[in-house]
Design goal:
By secondary structure, the protein is mainly alpha-helical. The chain is built from eight helices and no strands.
Length: 214
């Protein structure tokens, strides 16, 4: 029979996962509403088209994280550190180069796909978004590590803390630079999120190593 302590631990874990997913979803979609309000509804299309294409690269870290999660949850701290490093290296030779190539060739593939007008208005957006996608792909590894080691509260708290800062930056950037400003804000959030998640994962791994094997 499950104990009361185990039930409370499971509830707390699920609650923080829900919080992280909810706040993360708000930060993913809020920029479109702000663009529609501050620029125009038509401008939303120039922003979402490259966004929807580039974020498809997320299937690579998603597949990797799905395979890593149960192993990271059950393995020793030393093995978890090794797997974390290998996963980051794998993304550095797969998803990240693809995102950077997409950024460099943004004017070409956007013109070929959607026409010159989309390329003119959306190429700069695509380049900022591609850089953000690269950072976001890498961030999936420490995010998975923290959740797998039972610290779902850390990404959840981080996302709650990030939201007001993101909004404070998002509104003026869109007001001053339009849809490219929205892409700048999104890149900045993804980059900051990645740096902080890596720092939290490193701290967690160091703490586990100090506790010894198990």
């Amino acid at each position: 029979m499950p104990t009361r302590e185990a039930a409370l631990e499971l509830f707390g874990f699920g609650a923080w996962v829900t919080v992280s997913n909810l706040v993360g979803s708000i930060m993913v979609y809020i920029d479109r509403f702000v663009i529609g309000a501050q620029v125009s509804i038509a401008a939303v299309a120039f922003y979402t088209a490259p966004y929807e294409v580039l974020t498809r690269l997320g299937v690579i870290p998603a597949a990797l994280s799905g395979a890593l999660y149960p192993v990271l949850a059950a393995t020793s701290p030393a093995q978890a550190r090794l797997l974390h490093r290998k996963a980051v290296l794998m993304l550095l030779v797969t998803a990240v180069p693809l995102a950077l190539v997409a950024a460099l060739l943004a004017p070409f593939w956007m013109s070929l796909w959607l026409g010159d007008e989309y390329a003119r208005q959306g190429a700069g957006v695509a380049q900022w978004l591609a850089a953000g996608v690269a950072a976001n792909c890498l961030a999936q590894v420490p995010f998975t590590l923290l959740q797998a080691r039972g610290r779902a509260d850390l990404p959840g708290k981080l996302h709650i803390a990030e939201l007001p800062f993101y909004l404070v930056v998002l509104f003026p950037l869109i007001r001053n630079y339009g849809i490219e400003g929205a892409a700048m804000a999104w890149f900045g959030r993804c980059a900051a999120d990645a740096v902080l998640l890596f720092a939290l994962a490193h701290r967690e791994l160091v703490g586990l190593a100090m506790k010894g094997p198990g």
